[in-house]
Amino acid sequence: MLTRIDREQGTLPGKVRQKIAGQCQAISEGLRADRHRATWVYNRAIAAQRKTVLAHRAEIIDGSVAYDRVQDLIPDHWQQLVSVCGLTSVSETTQAVALFLLDEQWVSHLALLQEIRDGIHLRALGGEKPADEFHRLALREFHGFFDRTYRETATFIAGLTPDDIGRALTELGLRRPSATWTYMVTDDPYGSPGDRFTRRTGKFVRSKILNLE
Fold this sequence. Notes:
This protein is mainly α. It is about 70% helix and about 0% strand.
């Protein structure tokens, strides 16, 4: 039991201080674990899409999917290029352009998801689950990803002349992009009512009992 002097001076026995410090540490570790868990939840959708893009990229490199799709979109211009430059040269240029535009579109998609993620926590204020909403938006934005890639590739190839076939991408005005996207996230920075109560309690303990603030 605390004595009157202990209460007036704001001091606590060593065991009580140790217990409170342990509880504060447990709260801190719990919050850190929640942040890591939220990061994993958000990254799950992106990881699945990245896997799909990488698999399709391998199909472009190892197969004929790129020039088959482009040929279907611009058959007349494709045949004109092939008649002058040969199928192999036109196919290699088309493949290189498709890979470039696929990578460029993926970088743009990541940037868009980052913008969505930056504001997704506001959904919590409306009672929605930010992670669920992020996954829904990520799926919506990814829809038609490869169709857009091939439409852009076909448009680009349609603008090439036989003299352009076989030239380096940089000579055609294409420079390969790069992107790194790593982040830590907090699912709801405002916290649930329980989270806010815990923070207020922790602040009270630190300032009024432990005299740390």
